[in-house]
Design brief:
Elements: H1 8-12, H2 19-31, H3 34-46, H4 51-65, H5 68-78, H6 84-96, H7 100-117, H8 120-136, H9 140-149
Helix pairs in contact: 2-3, 3-4, 4-5, 4-6, 5-6, 6-7, 6-8, 7-8, 8-9
Length: 150
């Protein structure tokens, strides 16, 4: 998925990531800087960050390395499917693994949940994810229509 479509931060940034450290993480995610993300994850883990968020970040690292099987396993073990970010992470893992139908299902669930919660950033991220899924399925007109909404 291209950075312009969906930023990894939309998938994995911990809900409580604030301050200068959060800026470091956001930049590392935008730059796909695996080493910097790993350093941030290690520090956040030691500081007691939310383990589900950490698992999503580790899954993003796996995705950036092209290790889709391990990314899928991490997402499955995280077991925190209640929010849009975990669903978006599952969508991107499924998409990376070539399972676009599963990716669409996860992205649609994330979109519905984000809309229901009134989460504008989550809604936009879900539209971007869904557009990426549609592009993978060669549904370019549908993807472009979504991007106009996002």
């Amino acid at each position: 998925v291209e950075e312009a479509e969906l930023a990894p931060a939309d998938l994995a940034e911990p809900e409580d990531a604030r301050g200068p450290d959060a800026r470091v993480l956001r930049q590392a995610l935008r730059d796909h800087d695996v080493a910097a993300i790993e350093r941030w994850v290690d520090q956040a883990t030691l500081a007691g960050a939310d383990l589900a968020s950490i698992a999503r970040l580790r899954a993003v690292i796996d995705l950036l390395r092209g290790d889709f099987a391990n990314a899928e396993a991490r997402i499955a073990r995280a077991g925190d499917e209640a929010g849009p970010k975990p669903l978006l992470a599952q969508a991107m893992v499924a998409l990376g693994a070539g399972r676009s139908a599963d990716a669409v299902r996860f992205a649609l669930r994330a979109l519905a949940l984000s809309i229901r919660r009134g989460d504008a950033r989550g809604t936009s991220a879900a539209y971007h994810a869904l557009a990426a899924c549609y592009r993978a399925e060669r549904r370019h007109e549908d993807a472009e229509a979504l991007m106009r909404i996002a």
